[in-house]
Amino acid sequence: DVVDVEVTRKKSNYREGKPIKFHSYSEKRTTPQCEHFGICGGCKWQNMQYQSQLFYKEKQVYNALTRIGHLEIPKPLPILGSANEYRYRNKLEFTFSNKRWLTEKEINDKSLSFSDRSAIGFHIPGLFDKVLDITECHLQPEPSNAIRNEIKKYAIENKLVFFDLREQVGLLRNLLIRTTSTGEVMVIVVFFEDKKEEREGLLDHIMSKFPQITSLQYIINTKKNDNISDQEVIPYKGAEVIHEKMENLRFRISPKSFYQTNSEQAYELYKVARNFAGLTGNEIVYDLYTGTGTIANFVAHQAKKVIGVENVKAAIEDARINSGINGIENTVFYAGDMKDVFIPAFIAENGKPDVVITDPPRAGMPGDVVLRIAEAQPQRIVYVSCNPATQARDLALLTDKYKITAVQPVDMFPHTAHVENVVQLERLSP
Description:
Layout: E1 2-10, E2 15-24, H1 50-68, E3 91-97, H2 104-108, E4 119-123, E5 131-133, H3 144-157, E6 172-179, E7 185-191, H4 196-209, E8 215-220, E9 234-238, E10 242-246, E11 249-253, H5 263-277, E12 284-288, H6 294-299, E13 305-310, H7 313-325, E14 331-335, H8 338-341, H9 344-350, E15 355-358, H10 367-376, E16 380-385, H11 388-396, E17 402-410, E18 420-427
Parallel strand pairs: 7-8, 12-13, 12-15, 13-14, 15-16
Antiparallel strand pairs: 1-2, 3-4, 3-6, 4-5, 6-7, 8-9, 10-11, 16-18, 17-18
C-alpha cells in the first residue's frame, strides 16, 4: 500500500503508526473473510493473498538463518503451504467476559445501547481484561462456532454470570474446544464458581444440543490466572480423551495434551522431519522436546530405538500410552529438564545417537544443550523450529562440526506471521 501514516509511538530504532490515508492499494491485498478482522488480532495477514504470505514467510526463514545466524545454507526448498487456509485449527480457547469490547463503529452509533456486554471470544491484543465477542471464527471446523454460540445463548437466557476479569467474580470463565480429523469433539468448560445446579444445567444442555460431542468435561478454576495445567479436569459425559490419526498411527489427546494445532499440516511437517532423518532401521534416535511423543512414534518403525525426552511429566505419560496403543516397543521416554537429563551419563546408558531430532519451544535450546548435542556426535541432526530466529542462534553453535544440508519451511498457520522450519545437518568429517 502507499499510505500516509500518523506516527503514534517513537522508539530508538523503530516507529509505530496507523494509516490515515490510502493513496493506492497493493496488488497483494485480498478481502478478509472474517467479520472480526482488524480487531481480533488473531489472523493479522488475512487481508494478504495466501501466495504472498508464503513468499514473506519463506523470506523470513532465509533472513533469520543468514542474517541472524550468519549461516551458510543451501537454497531453502519451496515452502510447504497449508492445504486449508481456513478451518485448519483443531483447538481453540475462548474467554467469557461481562465487559465486551466495543468497537469504534458501535461507540459512534448513537442508536445502540449496551446494557448487556456479555461476551465469549478472544482477548483484545495487549488488554487482558477486554474480550471481543466472536460471532464466527474461521479457524476451527464446526461444530466449534455452533457450540460457542449456543453456550452464550443459553447462558444469557438463564442469567448465568459471565466472568469479570478485573474483579475476579462470576460463574463462566473459559471454554476449550478440540476437534480431530476422525470426527471426535472435546469440550471443556472452565467455571470460576462451584455452583452445581447451574453448572449441570449448562453441561446437560450442551450435550443435548450436540450429541456428536465425544468428551464433555469441566474445571473449577478459582485462581487469578487462566492456566489449567495445575487444575483437575473433571469428566462429565463421554470419554476422557479423544484420538487423532496419522498414517496408521493413533494418538491419544487428553485435555492438557500438546498436539500440533494444524493436524493435516503437522503430518506434512513430520514427514519432512522423518525424511531428513534418513533412517534405515538401524539407528538410535534421540527425540528431544518430544512432547507427547508424536515425532518419536512417527519415526519409530524406521529406527532401531527412539529415546524421547520432555520436561512435562504428563506429556511423557501420554507418549508412553501412544506407543502402547500403536504396539510400538522400541521407544523409551524420560521426563525432566533437558539440561539435567541430556547429559553424558544418560547418553552412555541409552546409547550414542546416530540421529538427533529436536523440536524445542519458541525460545529455542539452552546453549549447553546445543553443545551436548554436538559432543554426542550424531551423524545427522534434524532441527524443527517454530521460531527461525532462535533456531538460527542455536545452529550457529554447531557450524564448526556440522554442515547445513537442507532447509524446509512449512506453513502451519495461514494468515499469521508464524512459520515452522526444518533444518537438516550432517556431521563434518574429522
